[in-house]
Amino acid sequence: MDTTKDEIFESIKKFFEKKKIEFESNTSKVTVGYPAFDEKEVISALDSLLNLKISQGEKVKTFEKDFSEYIGTKYGTAVNSGSSANLIAISSMIESGMVKKGAEVVVPAATFTTVVSPLIQNGLVPKFVDVEMDTYNIDPDEIEKSIDNKTGLILVVHSFGCPAKMKKIMNIAHQHNLPLMEDCCEAHGAEINGKKVGSFGDISTYSFFVAHNMTTGEGGMVLTNNEILNDILESVREFGRLKKYEKDKRFYYNDETLKNYDERYVFNKMGYNVRMTDIAASLGVEQLKKLDKFNKRRLQIAKRYNESLSKFSDYLILPKIPDNCFHAFYGFVIIVKENSHFNRLDIVRFLEENNIETRGFMGGNLAIQPAYRNENIKIFGDLKNTNYILNNAFFIGCHPYISNKGVKHVIKTFEEFFKKI
Asked: Model confidence at 165, in pLDDT bands (50, 70, 90)?
């Protein structure tokens, strides 16, 4: 049996050796995101399948430990997606009493829908505030001005891997005695003064979607240093089960209505089933080992784009890297200046016609998205920068599997566009 497995694994290794040659020579399509896998992830996942270890198990525990240690937190709870991570993070803060139902949550208007929907689904009220033009992140000054006696939480998103101004935001949270949540779903490995984002707030979330800096296909993680929150997270992730029981003594649970009942089937919270499988975790364990290398390549590509496209700065706003920060560059954001004699659609169409994938800036201005128009939301200020981004921003890929030929193709295509206009 072991010989058969070895033969299978050796065939997979040879397959990926050929695949690597294809990646290095490919310029047929420059994608926004791509799973940067080799044989290690596939063999690890296949090993779980062959050993019939397919649900949440030891590999999930290993991944939780490895990832939380990498970010710099005590606890990690792995789930099936980044949106589920946000869902149980919010649910757990309410369950712990850290956030009251009905409270308002200060949140950036320019972000993705899964930042906001879990707030509404948990009976909270999103209060949309504007973002900064240079980082696309929530503006600390707008946070400060928006806080009132209804505010219950500050939710920061590190957009596209660019760290938000956490020192200033943490000071605001402390002054107003407010909990702080970090959405790091696009910011794996991003840093401020050598400290990883996701280790600043009370709780943080990550997504391991296929296009992100590291991937488990689908998957997510919630991190915290708070033991009480962690206990709730583990319960809420898995049906709301009672999590702390004496493993050697079954039929232990006793209260007025449940007498000597099997504690494995005691549910003391309202929960979900959002567990991560061992198959997904086996991918995550291997991907995490490569994350720093992946991010280094992303930064290298982003710098090449910046250097080559800076000559078009009369027309384009290119991303900046904040001082003393490591920008993880989930994507390379470009904003077309409004005084240009072309618009975003013109350049996006040209790029797509030349096999360069593009995407809009997530939800643009979420406050005007159809899903939220009839919901209980608040808008603070005029959201001037958010609306500018909505109308003029897009992003292209800078993932580590874009070859040098692919990078040259992107730069050449921009140059051809500006020759034509």
From this structure: very high
Are 189 and 306 within one domain?
A: no
CATH number for the domain that contains residue 141:
3.40.640.10
Summarize pLDDT for 185-196 with one digit per residue, the tens. Answer: 999 999 999 999
What band does 14 get if pLDDT is binned at 50, 70 and 90?
A: confident
Domain that holds residue 297: 291-420
Nearest-angstrom CA–CA distance, 62 and 295: 22
Is residue 194 within 8 Å of 67, Cβ to Cβ? no
In a shared domain, residues 84 and 218: yes
Tokens of 152: 């219950």
How far, in Å, CA of 319 to CA of 395, rounded?
10
Catalytic residue numbers read 212
pTM: 0.93
Both 54 and 167 in one domain: the answer is yes
Final residue before a domain boundary, out of 286, 315, 340:
286
- Rounded CA-CA distance 386/367 in Å is 10
Instruction: Give the end of a domain, one of 251, 286, 321.
Output: 286
How many domains would you assign to the chain? 2
